[in-house]
Design goal:
single chain; 209 residues; alpha+beta; nine-stranded antiparallel beta sheet
Length: 209
């Protein structure tokens, strides 16, 4: 009788262990499936996102920090921000900062300590008669700041509703500039362009997936 009791106890114990393992496996499988569905949904949302924002309080407040993080260039204390924007199209993004500075000479001295400034001609979206989107010639995303750029139908409505092209009157003229390629790679382009006659500076950072 004792042996039978012992076998009953062992059987009951194994059943409990089996049930615990079964439920742990079921919970883990459900969690994995839920995570997979969420990951696929997040990935789909990221690829379909298309947003454009300009001159918001948040972008203006973060401009100095964004410029320094992206280029190690300090925004001058007397800088007047003309335009700051961020554009996201799926996993791709483009950040633009346009500002004027009174003491341009001091600013140029500081930049020259970090980057080589080259004399070039800009007629946006052309730089030295080649598209500024080309590799080794900017490698950035060119937004329709000037009327010479016609966005695709997909993007046209968004820019019409949110972009203020009047801020780019001095920017869109063909003129001599000082140019430096802050960073350039397969999936990244960063440039800094100085418009000496306008005492104006343009920074762009673009990322692609």
């Amino acid at each position: 009788m004792k042996i039978i009791d012992s076998e009953i106890v062992y059987t009951s114990t194994y059943q409990k262990i089996y049930q615990i393992v079964f439920w742990l496996f079921a919970i883990a499988s459900s969690a994995f499936i839920a995570f997979f569905i969420y990951a696929m949904y997040s990935f789909s949302v990221a690829w379909s996102t298309h947003e454009y924002e300009e001159n918001s309080d948040l972008l203006n407040a973060a401009a100095a920090g964004s410029l320094y993080i992206e280029s190690r260039v300090k925004l001058p204390l007397d800088a007047k921000i003309i335009h700051v924007s961020e554009h996201r199209a799926g996993p791709n993004s483009s950040y633009n900062l346009l500002f004027k500075v009174n003491n341009l000479g001091t600013f140029l001295d500081e930049i020259s300590n970090q980057y080589l400034l080259e004399n070039k001609t800009i007629d946006y979206p052309l730089l030295n008669d080649e598209l500024i989107t080309k590799r080794d010639n900017g490698n950035i995303s060119a937004l329709p700041f000037c009327e010479k750029i016609k966005p695709s139908d997909e993007y046209d409505k968004l820019f019409i509703e949110k972009m203020n092209q009047s801020a780019f009157v001095d920017f869109c003229n063909k003129q001599k500039v000082l140019f430096t390629q802050v960073e350039e790679g397969t999936e990244i382009g960063k440039i800094l362009v100085v418009f000496p006659n306008q005492k104006m500076v343009w920074f762009n950072s673009s990322y692609w997936f």
